[in-house]
Specification:
The chain has a five-stranded mixed sheet with strand order 6-5-4-7-11, sandwiched between helices. It has helices spanning 2-20, 25-32, 36-48, 114-129, 166-174, 183-194, 253-256, 258-266, 271-296, 307-310, 313-325, 328-331, 345-359; strands spanning 23-24, 52-57, 68-72, 78-83, 89-96, 101-108, 136-143, 146-147, 152-156, 161-165, 178-182, 201-206, 210-216, 219-220, 300-304, 335-338. The chain is α/β, with parallel strands linked by helices. The two termini are 23 Å apart.
Length: 362
């Protein structure tokens, strides 16, 4: 339909300007295969919506009139982003479309769960909405647990939430678009949008729990029941005596969540003991990741969480265990690295999520 074609063309041009930087109308027509008339019409709409701005004539010595250059306007809108993945507080921020933080807020969890946790999330979003200084594109939330496509938190044991339609609650309260996703999936989107991760990549998010976000061909993989990446509750050693919030013993999370690993490190008396704690956690992670690497042949694994914990012995043990357990000839060139987006990765992922849903920018 003509209207669908127009939306497609709009998203196509926005993505190109967002990812590739300033281009002229002629450049956009050549790169997309659209006619110059179609490009001109769409650009006029984007200029009216302030999503694109003209930034002057192209420099150079080409014959004829210099072309007017266009760029994506990162300041046209703002988003409210919330990260519920930390063990002691909920973090939030107002961000522009380039992922830059405009202002921050946070609220202590103090053991909150269920309705109390939900009330704190609503309060945090309300504070942030009062700090918005440009048109609000939407609200994005990254939360631990299993989240369906409608923003219903089906299960988040660490937050005491079950079958809570967080997206609907926030949309009704603030009357704007809201998008809710698992925190690891949000973080994977952040890596793709702001750090240019590989198209086939696995991001492991270590926080209150342990989860993974999977991209294949640059597209998030959620699974038939929206639980793809819930690796934190894969049992590594059922005889370990380490009880998990899910009710089982020996889940990966009992070695690798921020709370449990800090408890183990607090008992280490020497540097060698500390390194061994981290190496054991890395070995546990490698045991869980090796079958995923073998099944999907991802080219990159990204670790996101406390850098002082993840770097060094933990990362090395993870990679070594994967190499020992997967076919080296096929998977030996896999890259394992630490995310460079720091503590803001879920916040930036929540912004990327809103931009994907509202503007078609992935």
């Amino acid at each position: 339909m003509p209207e669908q074609a127009r939306v497609h063309n709009r998203e196509l041009l926005l993505r190109m300007l967002y990812r590739e930087g300033p281009r002229s109308r002629a450049d956009l027509a050549r790169r997309t295969g659209l006619t110059r008339v179609s490009v001109s019409d769409v650009v006029s709409d984007l200029l009216s919506d302030h999503l694109v701005r003209e930034v002057g004539m192209r420099a150079g010595s080409r014959p004829g009139k210099p072309a007017m250059m266009l760029e994506f306007n990162e300041h046209a809108y703002q988003t409210v982003a919330v990260d519920l993945s930390h063990s002691t507080l909920y973090r939030g921020a107002v961000l522009d479309l380039g992922g830059a933080v405009v202002t921050r807020r946070q609220v202590e969890i103090a053991g909150s769960a269920g309705t109390d946790a939900l009330a704190k999330v609503v309060g945090l979003v309300r504070e942030l909405c009062q700090e918005v200084t440009a048109p609000l594109l939407g609200i994005g939330v990254g939360t631990p647990g299993i989240v369906d496509l409608g923003g219903v938190v089906l299960s988040a044991p660490n937050l005491g939430l079950k079958d809570v339609n967080l997206q609907s609650v926030l949309a009704e309260e603030f009357a704007c678009p809201v998008h809710v996703a698992n925190d690891a999936n949000a973080a994977a989107l952040a890596e793709r949008s702001y750090a240019e991760s590989a198209a086939d990549s696995l991001l492991v998010r270590v926080g209150v729990g342990v989860g993974a976000g999977l991209l294949l061909g640059g597209t998030p993989v959620l699974g038939s029941r929206f639980a793809a990446g819930e690796i934190g509750h894969v049992v590594v050693d059922p005889d370990s005596g380490r009880s998990c919030v899910c009710g089982k013993n020996g889940c990966l999370e009992t070695w690798l969540s921020t709370r449990r690993i800090q408890e183990d490190l607090s008992e280490a008396r020497t540097e060698g003991e500390r390194d061994r704690v981290l190496a054991v956690a890395g070995e546990s992670l490698g045991c869980v990741l090796a079958p995923i690497v073998a099944a999907l042949n991802v080219s990159e694994i990204v670790l996101s969480g406390p850098q002082r914990v993840l770097e060094g012995p933990l990362a090395a043990a993870t990679m070594e265990t994967i190499r020992q357990r997967a076919l080296t000839e096929v998977h030996g060139d896999i890259v394992l690295r630490l995310s460079e987006l720091g503590d803001d990765i879920v916040l930036r992922g929540a912004t990327a999520m809103v931009m994907s849903q509202q503007l078609g920018i992935v």
